[in-house]
Design brief:
Strand order of the largest sheet: 3-2-1-4-5-6-7
CATH topology: Rossmann fold
Number of helices: 8
Strand content: 15-25%
Distance between the termini: 40 Å
Structural class: alpha/beta
Length: 246
């Protein structure tokens, strides 16, 4: 398939999980990809993908890193069509026990990192005539669950930032949408405590967790020209989990 033929995408969190899946699928669909990650695993993913990929060591909490990565994509491939802000971490803890240093860490990675990617993505793409920002939120942004307050707050902030970008830059040809995944069977899910995956899966009407490639397919569609009138959308992909009242 050549749905993304000729497009150039920067993807954060590309060393594993949903970021890695997006990188692999985008390359398979004809895109060039710049793989941002802080772990070093982006190197291995780039080798596996081949000539269409370039790794970039990036800590998304550092604005200079993100700016340099986006500049590197333009310098290497001559253009930028999409920024996928996937990088993030989870957090569990009751509000009454909250360590504010941990609060700062989660907000820095999960929200500030997305703000950095959105800021420099819209700058580069609006100057070049357009493009797409995709920001990864979570179903945790849509409702409360015990022990996820900080994570939920960060992800809800991502949705707000995404909508603002859509309104502010739509006339410059830049679309901004939020991808809102539920449970996906990533490497992180495989290390979940015993019983947790089973209990989460029991809440999903589809009866299973998602495959990372399924989320990547949504991202590929949203970046493609077929989605050119989708802007400011909150795209839930969770097997029906968030559709329930309880």
């Amino acid at each position: 398939m050549a749905e993304l033929d000729g497009k150039v995408a920067v993807i954060t969190g590309a060393g594993s999980g949903l970021g890695k899946a997006a990188a692999e699928l985008f390359a398979a669909y004809g895109a060039k990809v710049v793989l941002g990650d802080v772990s070093g695993a982006e190197q291995d993913v780039a080798v596996a993908i081949g000539d269409a990929a370039r790794p970039f060591r990036c800590d998304v909490t550092q604005e200079a890193h993100v700016e340099a990565m986006i500049r590197a994509a333009v310098d290497e491939f001559g253009r930028l069509d999409a920024v996928l802000n996937v990088a993030g971490v989870t957090h569990f803890g009751m509000l009454g026990d909250l360590d504010m240093a941990e609060y700062d860490r989660i907000l820095d990675i999960d929200l500030r990192g997305v703000v950095h990617g959105t800021k420099h993505g819209v700058r580069a793409m609006s100057e070049a005539g357009g493009g797409v920002v995709l920001n990864w939120a979570s179903v945790a942004a849509l409702g409360a669950k015990a022990s996820t307050a900080v994570y939920s707050a960060a992800k809800a902030g991502i949705i707000a930032i995404t909508k603002a970008a859509a309104v502010e830059y739509g006339r410059q040809g830049v679309r901004a949408n939020a991808v809102v995944p539920g449970l996906f069977l990533t490497e992180a899910a495989a290390t979940a405590p015993a019983g947790l995956l089973e209990s989460l899966t029991a809440t999903i009407p589809a009866g299973r967790g998602g495959e990372p490639a399924e989320c990547a397919e949504l991202a590929a569609f949203l970046v493609s020209d077929r989605a050119r009138f989708i802007n400011g959308a909150v795209m839930v992909i969770d097997g029906g989990q968030s559709a329930q009242l309880a």
